Amino acid sequence: MATDTNDLEQDLVTLNLTYKGTPHTYSFSSNATISDLAEEVVSDLSIPATNQKFMIPKLGTLKTPFKDPDLPIFSFADKKITLLGSTTKEANAIGAAAHEASRNVQVAATRRVQKVKAYKTHDWKREQEENLYTFTTLRPLPYLPNPQKSLEFLQRLKDDAGIKASMRTHKFTVPLLTEMNPIEHTQSNHEGTSRTLGLNRNRGEAIELRLRTDAYDGYRDYKTIRNTLCHELAHNVHGTHDRQFWDLCKQIEKEVEGSDWKSSGRRLGNEEYYGGEVDDHGGWDGGEFMLGGGGVSSGAERESESLSRSEIMAKAAEARKTKEQESSQGDGSSDA
User: Fold this and answer.
1) Contact 17, 24 (CB under 8 A)
2) Residues 153 and 117 reside in one and the same domain
3) CB 230 within 8 A of CB 249
4) Positions marked catalytic
5) Where is region (Disordered) located (predicted)?
6) Band of the pLDDT at 321, cuts 50, 70, 90?
7) Among the three residues 35, 63, 84, which one is the final residue of a domain in this structure?
C-alpha cells in the first residue's frame, strides 16, 4: 500500500497561481487539462468560468471558451500564472452600481428640466432621438481596480453634449460601450511600444475605449478619449481608413466640438482636434462579447505578448518624463 500511495503522489501535478495578490496552490492528476483548472477555480474561488482569464507567459491570455480545452496542465505548471476575474457577487455589485448610476443621472436630468421649464419649451422630439441614438449599455471591466470610476467615465461620454448631438445627426445607436484592458492591447518590441486606443466591432455593435493608463493607476485625458470615440463612431459607416472615413471622422469631431457648450464650441485657427494619437488599425468584423468577461473575442483575435506590471509602470514613467520635458520646452515658446 505504501508503494501505491507514493506512485499516486508522483502522478500529481502541482500548479501555483496568483489572484488579487494572493497565491493559491492546486494539485491535479497528470492528465488534467485547462478545463479542469477552470472548474476548480469555480469551486474554490466562486469565479464563473466566463469571468476567468489566465495570464500565462508565452501562452498569453487564456479564457473560456478555450481554443484548446484539452491543453494539459503539466505543460504550463512551472510558469507564473495570474488569474483575473470577478466573483458572481462582485459582478452583481457592478450591475447594481450601473443601475444606480443610471438612475442618479436620470434624477439629475429630471431636476435640470424642472428648473428650466419656465424658460424653455419641452423638446420631445429631441428627447426621443437621444433615447434612441445613444449607447444602450455601458460596461466597465469588473476585474480591474475601481470599476465604478470607469463606469462614471463611460457615463460622462454618453452624456457629452457633443457626442449626443453627433449621434442624433448620424442616427448612430451602439448597443455596447465598454472599456479596454490596456495590457491586452499593448505590444512592445525592438521598435518601441504600440497601443490600441479604440476598437469598433461590426460597425457599431460594440465599441471599446482605452480609458486607463498602462499601469492602471490613472485615467487618460478626457478629450483625447472623446476624440478616439469620434474615430470609432466613424467606423460605424466605413471600416477602412480611406478618404471617406477620414472626411466623416473630421466631420464628427467638428460636430462634437461645436456642440460642446463647456468649450463654447471654439477652435484655434485651423488646428486639428486632438489628432495624431488615435490608433485602432481600422474597424473589424466578427467576434462575440463575453458577458462578464469584459472583452471582445474573435476567431482572429490579436493576442499580444503581455507585459509585466513592472515593465508597464516603467514605460508609463518614461512617457510621463518625456511629456514633462516637452511641456517645459513649450512653456518657453511664444504663441503663434
Assistant:
1) yes
2) yes
3) yes
4) 232
5) 290-336
6) low
7) 84
Taking the complete model, does pTM exceed 0.85, yes or no?
A: no
Q: Would 241 be classed as within a structural domain?
A: yes
3 state DSSP class of 309: helix
Per the CB < 8 A criterion, the answer to whether 305 and 187 are in contact is yes
Domain range enclosing 65: 11-84
Q: Which residue has the higher pLDDT, 61 or 320?
A: 61
Whose CA is closest to 134, among 204, 223, 34, 192? 204
Whether residue 123 is found in the same domain as residue 175: yes
d(CA 181, CA 216): 9
Query: What are the DSSP calls for 221-277, one per residue?
Result: -HHHHHHHHHHHHHTTT-SS-SHHHHHHHHHHHHHHHHT-GGGTT---TT--SS-S-
Q: For residue 49, what is the domain's CATH number? A: 3.10.20.90
List the single range of 40-49, 146-155, 209-218, 263-272 with lowest mean pLDDT. Answer: 263-272
DSSP letters for 120-135:
S---HHHHHHHHHSSE
CA atoms within 13 A on the CB side of 60: 13
Query: Distance (Å, rounded) from C-alpha 54 to C-alpha 33?
Result: 13
Q: How far apart are CA 215 and CA 56, in angstroms?
A: 18
Please determine, for residue 3, whether its predicted confidence score (pLDDT) is greater than 50. no
89-98, 136-145, 264-273, 300-309: which has the highest mean pLDDT? Answer: 136-145
> What is the C-alpha separation between 185 and 140, in angstroms, rounded?
16
How many domains, in total, are found in the chain? 2
Ramachandran area for residue 291 (φ above 0: left; ψ -120 to 50: alpha; else beta): beta
